[in-house]
Structure to design on (512 residues):
């Protein structure tokens, strides 16, 4: 692989010294998870170093150092490329999808191309020796920014007039590698390879608000959908830093792979992806726990990442393989599975997965253990039938989307199906005594009964019908109510258990 290492060294352009302790940081083992599915590998040629997806998710644009390759996201096939007048190494798309922006590492220009026709709209000249290593379009569609490594600055372009507005100086020791902009377009974040920090820029005043430290040699930065977190790809320390945008503090440092080059956040904010160029992998991070939950094998030299707007596809630009990998994700496993036993069956309920893989859950499969009997449903409950009474069962559940099925959930509580008890027998020897203020009644227990429903019907002192009901586990009851003297009351008792009710027994008493 010596030729690969050589190509990587050339791609880095202006090099800064690696940390002396780089080789001492162990890779995280992380819990393995079979949640990624390799959908396709698309040959785009050249050395793909940047990738962007159109806002409607229909097209993928890849800067290959020869052209901007265009890929149909439905068929995963290469279309007619966009061919600027120079070798493009970075690419972005306007929020409305009409313009493709591309830059070249060794040229001082930002090229604007028509996304539909591929024709050049305009070339905007940057400062001499700019060496733009990043480009980003603001979500509000008003600005485009380039990170100019060679001039330690950021160029601001008016996207509406398609003209250069200004250049923001960062300082002679600061080398911009990556750019990200807040969802409200108010802040621009610059991954500063020279100072191991993130520069924060106010996009209204075009001023640097300050620097806050992250890991060693941040090459890329991404913002969470709510704007509350930054994630930096720290090339030198093999980590991803998690930064609170309010306090500017690093709240977590996550070990990933070797030569982490790029970072991307899923549209729902639940996952972060880090491209590890040295390992030919992508680390998948759960943002709730800030841990690596999966490591995905990619093509040779994963250099850049982009995600479809719906979160259903991750695109990986493999610089040394001249390809992009198209990756889909199955859901995370369902949680909170609870089982209830019945007659030769178990009913299960559960909570839907926190991560859907960026696409709808199409169904669930619940499996009984032992035996393997299943039930399938689109809801979050179903009943597994055909089980053996007297056998102890647990239930696990898998969620499915168009990419495949999740891992099985944790087992439910253990339950034992059983045949229902017969309905109770009839109560006997019902007796009742009634006064104008109460009715006392008793009966002989019904076989198999667990409770009794008692109903009394009579007339109050105004000669109006009154009804009193109660439920008891005892074989006697006292019902307090005002009754008309010398009237009659009817008392009925119905035995019950879990299987149903027996026939009621009734008696009549005279009010004394």
């Amino acid at each position: 692989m010596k030729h690969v290492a050589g190509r990587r060294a050339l791609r880095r352009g202006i090099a800064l010294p690696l940390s002396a302790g780089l080789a001492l940081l162990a890779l995280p083992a992380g819990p393995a998870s079979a949640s990624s599915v390799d959908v396709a590998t698309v040959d785009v040629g050249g050395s793909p170093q940047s990738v962007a997806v159109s806002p409607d998710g229909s097209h993928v644009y890849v800067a290959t150092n020869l052209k901007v390759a265009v890929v149909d996201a439905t068929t995963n096939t290469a279309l007619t490329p966009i061919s600027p007048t120079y070798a493009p190494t970075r690419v972005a798309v306007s929020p409305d999808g009409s313009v493709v922006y591309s830059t070249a590492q060794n040229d001082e220009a930002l090229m604007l191309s028509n996304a539909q026709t591929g024709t050049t709209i305009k070339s905007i000249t940057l400062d001499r020796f700019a060496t733009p290593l990043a480009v980003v379009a603001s979500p509000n569609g008003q600005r485009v920014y380039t990170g100019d490594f060679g001039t330690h600055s950021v160029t601001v372009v008016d996207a509406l007039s398609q003209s250069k507005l200004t250049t923001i100086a960062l300082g002679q020791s600061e080398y911009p590698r990556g750019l990200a902009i807040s969802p409200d377009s108010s802040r621009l974040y610059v991954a500063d390879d020279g100072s191991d920090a993130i520069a924060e820029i106010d996009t209204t005043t075009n001023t640097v608000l300050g620097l806050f430290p992250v890991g060693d040699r941040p090459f890329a930065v991404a913002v969470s959908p709510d704007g509350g977190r930054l994630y930096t790809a720290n090339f030198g320390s093999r980590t991803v830093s998690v930064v609170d945008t309010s306090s500017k503090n690093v709240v977590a440092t996550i070990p990933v792979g070797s030569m982490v080059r790029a970072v991307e956040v899923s549209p729902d904010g639940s996952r972060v992806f880090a491209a590890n160029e040295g390992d030919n992998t992508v680390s998948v991070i759960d943002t709730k726990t800030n841990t690596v939950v999966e490591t995905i094998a990619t093509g040779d030299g994963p250099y850049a990442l982009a995600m479809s707007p719906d979160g259903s596809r991750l695109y990986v630009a493999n610089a040394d393989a001249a390809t992009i990998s198209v990756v889909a994700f199955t859901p995370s496993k369902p949680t909170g599975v609870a089982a209830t036993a019945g007659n030769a069956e178990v009913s299960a309920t559960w909570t839907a997965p926190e991560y859907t893989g960026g696409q709808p859950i199409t169904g669930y499969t619940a499996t009984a253990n032992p035996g393997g009997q299943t039930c399938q449903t689109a809801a979050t409950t179903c009943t597994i039938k055909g089980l053996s009474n007297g056998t102890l069962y647990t239930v696990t559940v898998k969620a499915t989307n168009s990419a495949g099925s999740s891992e099985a959930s944790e087992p439910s509580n253990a339950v034992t199906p059983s045949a229902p008890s017969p309905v109770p027998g009839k109560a006997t020897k019902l007796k009742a005594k009634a006064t104008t203020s109460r009715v006392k009644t008793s009966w002989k227990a019904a076989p198999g009964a667990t409770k009794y429903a008692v109903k009394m019907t009579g007339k109050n002192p105004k000669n109006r019908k009154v009804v009193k009901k109660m439920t008891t586990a005892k074989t006697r009851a006292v019902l307090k109510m005002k009754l008309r003297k010398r009237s009659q009351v009817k008392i009925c008792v119905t035995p019950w258990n879990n299987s149903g009710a027996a026939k009621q027994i009734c008696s009549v008493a005279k009010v004394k």
